[in-house]
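Encode chain A's predicted structure.
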Amino acid sequence: MINLFNIPNHIIDTSKLGHLLHGEAVEKFETAFAEYVGASHACFANSASSLMYIALRSLNTTIRLPSIMPRVVPNVIINTKNRLEFYDDIDWVGGCYKLTDKIWDSAQEVSKNQYKNKATQMSDVMIFSFYPTKPVSSCDGGMIVSDSEYTIDYYRSMINNGSTVGQSWDIEQSRIGYKMHGNSIQATIAYNNFKNLEKKNSILEEICLEYNDKLGYSNKSKHLYRIRVKDNKSALEILKSKGINCGIHYQACHLNPIFRNCIYEKRSLPKSELEEKQTLSIPFHENLTKQDLNRVIENVKKIGTV
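Encoded structure for chain A:
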């Protein structure tokens, strides 16, 4: 079976991690990651969703999202008591987008100097995910980066129950926070995968060019390779029967009956509604062989794209 994603396996000797919750592994990863994306400071948490929750929890505003979107994002918006509105953008998938003023969601992209290239103010934050299928994978986890030390100190306090980090007898609590900190195991796995990111991306660029050439697309994402077919659900099953695992990224959130009751302004989004039926992600990872690629391309051509 040709897998949609590759999730690297790791063996970790926990006796070498020191502190399992706030050890050196977390600090090393924060420093290296911030430098790579072009930010001055970083804070590692248990998930990107947790960081997004803290970022949005007191805004009391209307947040506009592309409808073709993972359900987790509108879920966080509703849970933080913000108003939800969708717009018709199907091209952002696989990249970074501006969630709202000063807040960037980059759960699907990790590229060199991207914070430096996109941030317009020192206090801008960018949130990354280390969910197992993301560009830098782990057993979940998230990172928020900024050029503002004050901003990152705030997030670091909020994910640690509103307290400073240190020896238990030295910790001071300055606010009501949450238990959302990442741990050394998550950080170790993510850091090990992060160190291979440039090599992985180089391979993915070659695979993307091959797909583009043979399938007639001009895709650029290093996270997903999406095609459009007449009926994605039937195509998914046909390809699965040929030993090729695919996925659908994503369904149109504005059609989800759970979210429809929370939408601030309901509107027709024709591109998203069509995309929900047609978008299909085909295998796209660094372990694909030339034989795998040829097999995927051959079977996709038999189905036909639109």
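The CA atoms of residues 39 and 147 lie 5 Å apart.
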